[in-house]
Design brief:
Elements: E1 2-6, H1 21-27, E2 32-37, H2 45-55, E3 58-63, H3 76-96, E4 100-103, H4 117-140, E5 144-147, H5 161-171, E6 176-181, H6 182-188, H7 192-199, E7 203-208, H8 223-232, E8 238-241, H9 249-254, H10 265-288
Parallel strand pairs: 1-2, 1-8, 2-3, 3-4, 4-5, 5-6, 6-7, 7-8
Helix pairs in contact: 2-3, 3-4, 4-5, 5-7, 7-8, 8-10
Length: 289
């Protein structure tokens, strides 16, 4: 299992002017850096790949899904813009050697409406159709799409692992699976370990942070149970710490981060990594015994 950190811990938006961050992330002991593509024009795949190689660190790609990138929107032009954005993310992923593009790509983050059942089904069908097309494009470049269920306050479409599995099965593409995030699962799942086990082969990526979006190990999430469940389903890919810097006003407002959760990004990342590595080792020893 490899451990990564999201650039959101330190900066937003990520672009070529932030490539010096890769060396810091590597020095903190991470195997991967996950870059969020808020503006594709700011990211040059060749430059990112070269900086990652110099730092000796791998790269993962995560998307950012605002209202103009909504693949389940009632306006076909907006849906098409969302698919085009996903294609751009796939191109970047292919160029930097990322095995995936991850994120809540089925809708615009923050869109939460109490829709009648017929309208909700239509929104779902638009998401399925759009992500099937985006998945086909990604498959041609050897890239996986990892769909992230979000908690009820951030989306009205896919909140639970069960819903995420159903969406993947409706899309029906081998390279489309799930990104599971402990922050969102802590809100929506009655049993996080059971939810992970129920997702099984659909799990393609994992995000970790605490119940308050702080460093893993600083709150009440049962990470030992998380690692036991991941081991049971045979997951041996990347586990990424995703938190956010409150110094960026737009990001702080978007994720409702009204107070700092650590003295700085380096502290959050390093303490979280030490905890996750220890927790993973102890869970593995427990399983082997």
């Amino acid at each position: 299992m490899r451990f990564g950190a999201s650039t959101f811990v330190w900066t937003s938006p990520f672009g070529d002017d932030r490539l010096s961050l890769f060396g810091r992330v590597a020095q903190l002991g991470f195997d991967r850096v996950e870059i969020c593509i808020e503006d594709p024009a700011l990211v040059s795949p060749d430059a990112v790949a070269a900086a990652a190689a110099d730092a000796g660190i791998g790269v993962l790609v995560c998307g950012a899904f605002g209202p103009d990138r909504d693949v389940s929107h009632e306006d076909p032009a907006v849906r098409e813009a969302g698919i085009d954005y996903l294609r751009s993310c796939v191109d970047i992923a292919h160029g930097v050697g990322s095995r995936l593009v991850a994120g809540p790509m089925y809708s615009a983050t923050g869109k939460a409406r109490l829709l009648p059942p017929a309208e909700r089904r239509q929104q779902w069908e638009w998401a399925v159709e759009s992500l099937r097309r985006a998945g086909g494009y990604a498959a041609a470049q050897g890239v996986t799409l990892a769909i992230e269920p979000l908690n009820r306050f951030e989306t009205d479409l896919v909140n639970t692992v069960e819903q995420g599995v159903r969406l993947c099965e409706d899309i029906g593409a081998d390279n489309v699976g799930l990104l599971l995030d402990t922050f969102h699962m802590n809100i929506e799942e009655r049993d996080i370990g059971a939810a992970i086990r129920s997702a099984g082969r659909h799990v393609r990526h994992v995000h970790t942070c605490e119940n308050d979006r702080g460093a893993p190990g600083s709150g009440h999430i049962d990470f030992a149970g998380v690692f036991r469940a991941l081991d049971e389903i045979g997951y041996d890919e990347d586990v990424v710490i995703e938190s956010f810097t409150p110094e960026i006003v737009e990001i702080a407002r978007a994720v409702s981060m009204w107070r700092p959760l650590a003295p700085d990004g380096d502290t959050l990342a390093s303490e979280g990594l030490a905890f996750l590595r220890d927790c993973h080792a102890r869970a593995g020893a427990e399983i082997r015994s």
